[in-house]
Specification:
The complex is a heterodimer.
Chain A lengths: L1 H7 L3 H30 L4 H10 L1 H17 L3 H9 L7 H24 L5 E3 L2 E4 L4 H6 L7 E2 H22 L19 H9 L4 H35 L10 H6 L1 H28 L6 H36 L12 H28 L1 H10 L3 H29 L6
Antiparallel strand pairs in A: 1-2, 2-3
Helix pairs in contact in A: 2-3, 2-4, 2-6, 2-8, 2-14, 4-6, 4-8, 4-14, 6-8, 10-12, 12-13, 12-16, 13-14, 13-16
Chain B lengths: L6 E12 L2 E12 L3 E5 L6 H8 L7 E6 L2 E2 L5 H11 E4 L11 H5 L1 H6 L3 H14 L15 H13 L5 E5 L7 H18 L2 E6 L8 H7 L6 E6 L2 E2 L26
Parallel strand pairs in B: 3-8, 3-9, 6-7, 7-8
Antiparallel strand pairs in B: 1-2, 1-4, 4-5, 9-10
Helix pairs in contact in B: 6-7, 7-8
Classes of the chains: A mainly alpha, B alpha/beta.
Amino acid sequence: MLTLRLTLTATPAALLLRLLLLCASAAGGLLLLAALSYALEHPGHRAAVLMRLLWCLIPLAATAHLAVVLGRTEPRAETRLGLHTAGLGPARLPLLAARTAAVPALAGSALTLLLTVRGGVGSAGGSLSVLNLSRPSAAVLPLQGPPLPVPAAVTLLSALPVAAALAAAWGARAGAAAPAPEDSWRSADGRGAVDSARRRDGTETSRRAELLRSTLQAASGLLTGTAGLLLAAYAARTSGGAWDLAEHPGEVAGSPFAAAWTLIGVGLVVAGPGLVALSGHLLGAARPGPVRLLAGRSLVREASFLGRPLGGLSAVAAALVAVFRARPAGEWVPAPGPLVAVAAALTGCCAAAAGLAALARVRRARAPVRELLERLGAPRQLGRGVALLRAASVAAVYAPLAAAAGLFTALPPG
Amino acid sequence: MAAPPDDVLWARGLHYAYDGSPALQGVSLGVREGEILAVTGPRGSGKTTLLRCMSGQLLPDQGEVWFNSAPVHTLGRAARERLRLHRFGWIDSTPHLVPELTAWENAALPLLLHGDGYRAARSTACSWLERLDVGDCAGKRPPALRQAQRQRIAVARALVHSPTVLFADEPTAPLHQTDRAQVLRALSAAARSQGITVLLAGHDFALDQAARTAEATGAALADRIVALTDGRRARTPAPGGPAAVPAGPEGAAACSLSV
């Protein structure tokens, strides 16, 4: 009941997040069922089936990440304080978060089950099975194979809500506090905060260590991405004839291209925090004025919270660029198979939502600093200038990276 | 109506309500140049609201605020921000520092906002930190410091641009007795030497007039004490009462003040 009430009184943004989780869960369920359908259709192709199932992991991970975001932001800070006072402390809050995320995910899975069932669960050949779709939907959804066995379908569909619930509980655990709460050094669940505070006490050695760490992070991410680019180029050189992405997505999925693209995406995500921190260091270097000082230092501080979601966003942008390049001549957009389209849309939406949620979180966490500056009498233009400079420097780091990754990725000849 | 000439800050008939719940109900107050005026009263008596109204952070619902014979309550938002930035200093009851800046950058923030050079701001801020006995923390960030050190950095930030009026809203609330005495002495010594007018809010000036705590609460340092009760001026405590009692030596922490 508490979960329901919290859902009913949630803000529009939180409701949108839940709706997105519902859609992601439905789409993910559809992908899993498609893999099952393919497996039933081709009992001999074990490797291909396994490959399809493995590819479902990426949308699944994106959905789980969305659930982590939901667990972090919901319930809101004020509600959380009230719940804490009422006895719903750090031990039980993850349970609440798990329920909060499980409800929309379950609804999404149920939606998928409903969509794939025509006229209820019938019995075919003595055993229960999910019947296939009616004609018009069957043309869109690739579930033309034999009827799906209900236990298998339900088991597969329950994977997403379980993953979402676990991820949300993990996101709501005590250590995952906001990036810079007003009194981070005094926060109740404070060991992590204090440890990180000691690490960042600002003395010369710790600052050097910080710089070194972010450089290493950025370098490792960029190296991974470069390795992905090289692998894609190698695959393009060694692969033979033309591939039709629309008709045989399975071939691409099993080829080195897929591994290369994954590597590029992972590289962008891994490099994120280091790149944001480095840009912050650069911004705050060489006798900065107040705008540069505040923007640079805040970027350094928030790098670990902002970097990965922004890296994910840039990976999505790179993918969009690559898709645009891969379109067949004369057409505005390429026509990939429905499954690929669903998976790509799901992953992209989840990454975008996670990125936007991270931005919103960081903005909320900066409210005390804004209030402080107002109290000191800092002009309003200062706040705007700082925000603009932060956005501009982050964009200046990520836009070229995403563009380069998208433009220089080798595509399968087609 | 013009303000009396000898009052640097002057308020008349201030009314303020937070969403309908009244905080100030007709407070009038004059602050003379260079004096340390203590505003006392229990929690919820309107001390903070009074200070925020007088410093231009809040606009009173009714009443007037004059600074140096110029009205503050009719100024626009930007003009009040400028006034706060250039002429006023503010110390909170908890040290609100920017967590990602080092101690000296925090202290130098008003100077940097004025447009001073980085090096000049740094040397001024560091000298203030030295005077307040936190010079060795200049390169550290607030999360690595103790609360008393952070509060001293906040004091340095409020004094660094030599404001005309310093508003201190219970500056010793989060500190222990020894730290309280030290911070208040540092504050008052700095204000006296620079001729800064101080408006000091605190809730325990009148409550605890024992000899050892008189200095720790700031009552001994104030020229005048104004008592607030439920958003109104209460009867002023007898002058010289708490201030006449000398401070005991054992409560004071060792500190070197050269302000």
